[in-house]
Amino acid sequence: MINVLLSGCNGKMGKVITSVLEKDGTATIVCGYDINTQSCAYPVYDDLSAVTEKADVVIDFSNPAAADKVMDFCSERRIPLVEATTGLDEVQRTKLETISKKMPVFYSANMSVGVNLLISLVKKAAAILEGNFDIEIIEKHHNQKIDAPSGTALMIADEIASALKGGCQYVYDRHNDRKKRESTEIGIHSVRGGTIVGEHSVIFAGNDEVIEINHSAAGKEVFAVGAIKAARFLVGKQPGLYNMEDLVNS
Predict the structure, then answer these.
(1) How large is the angle between the packed helices 90-99 and 64-77, nearest 10 degrees?
(2) How high is the mean pLDDT in each 10-residue block of the chain (250 residues)?
(3) What is the pLDDT, as a whole number, of residue 75?
(4) Which of 7, 12, 112, 191 could disulfide-link 60, Cβ–Cβ 3.0 to 4.6 Å?
(5) Distance (Å, rounded) from C-alpha 90 to C-alpha 104?
(6) Does the reported pTM lie above 0.85?
(7) Are 64 and 43 in contact (CB under 8 A)?
(8) CA–CA separation, 173 vs 215, rounded Å?
(9) Are 56 and 80 spatial neighbours (Cβ–Cβ below 8 Å)?
(10) For residue 14, what is the enclosing H or E element?
(11) Residue spans of alpha helices (H) in 51-110
C-alpha cells in the first residue's frame, strides 16, 4: 500500500482519482492540496508547508499556476512526483528535469496508456512514410479547456518530429497564409466544444491514399488509472525523469 498526496484533489480529475483509489485498494490518499479546501475523506490543505502527513508519492493533477509550488515541495522533501498537469511551459518542464536529479519524477502530457500507444504507432509510421505523406494532427476537447493546442497534440508532434530525418515545422493556423502547403509542415488543429473528454487524430495524407490513427477517451477515468499506475511505478525508483514509455516497458 502506498500513501499518496493528491494535488488538485477537489478539481475534476482529482475527484476521479479519489473515486478510483477508493475501489483500487493498492494506494490510499493521506491528504490533498487544493485552493478549494472543501472536506474530503482525507485532510485538504491550501498551503503545502502545513502538510504533516507522510506521503510516498505526490500526484499533481492541478494547473500550471500551482505546479511550481508542488515541484518545490517535492524537491525540498525528496518525495517522488507524478506530474500530470497539462499546459506546463518550457521553463516548468526544464524545472522538472532539474528536480529529477534529486528524486524520481514522472511526467507525461497525457496519462492514458492508449494515447501513448498511439504515439508509438504514429512515430513508426512517420519514419516509414516520410517524404511521401503530409502529416496533420487534430485534437478535440471540451469547451472548458484553456490551453490550445493540447499538450498531448504537441507531444504527438514532437515524437513525430523526432522520427523525421528531413526536419519539419509546426503550423497552427493557415488562414493568414495564402500559399500551398509545404511538404515539411505538420499541421496542428484544435477543436473546443461541449463535453468532449479528449480525441486525437493523426492523418497521413499521400497520393490516392490516407492513413488515419485515432484515439478517443470516453471518460476521465483512463487518465486517473494511468496516473495511479505511474505513482506505483515511481515509488522506489532512483532519481531521474521517467515517462509513459518507461512504464509500458517496465
Answers:
(1) 10
(2) 95 93 88 90 94 97 93 97 91 96 93 90 96 97 92 93 94 87 95 96 98 94 92 95 87
(3) 97
(4) 7
(5) 19
(6) no
(7) no
(8) 23
(9) yes
(10) helix 12-24
(11) 64-77, 90-99
CB 84 within 8 A of CB 61: yes
Edge-to-edge strands, sheet with 2-7: 44-45, 27-33, 2-7, 57-60, 81-83, 104-107, 240-242
Report which residue type is found at 42: Y
Cα-flanking dihedrals φ and ψ of residue 156, to 5°?
-60, -45
Contacts of 40 (CB under 8 A, 6+ apart): 9, 10, 18, 29, 32
Instruction: From 221, 224, 156, select the one nearest 190 (Cα to Cα).
Output: 156
Query: What is the reported pLDDT for 173?
Result: 82
Hey, which bits of the chain come out as E strands? 2-7, 27-33, 44-45, 57-60, 81-83, 104-107, 134-141, 169-171, 185-192, 198-206, 209-217, 240-242
**What pLDDT is attached to residue 146?**
87
Active site residues: 141, 145
Q: pLDDT at position 30, please? A: 96
CA angle 173, 177, 179 (to 5 degrees): 120
Instruction: Supply φ then ψ for residue 181, to 5 degrees.
Output: -70, 135
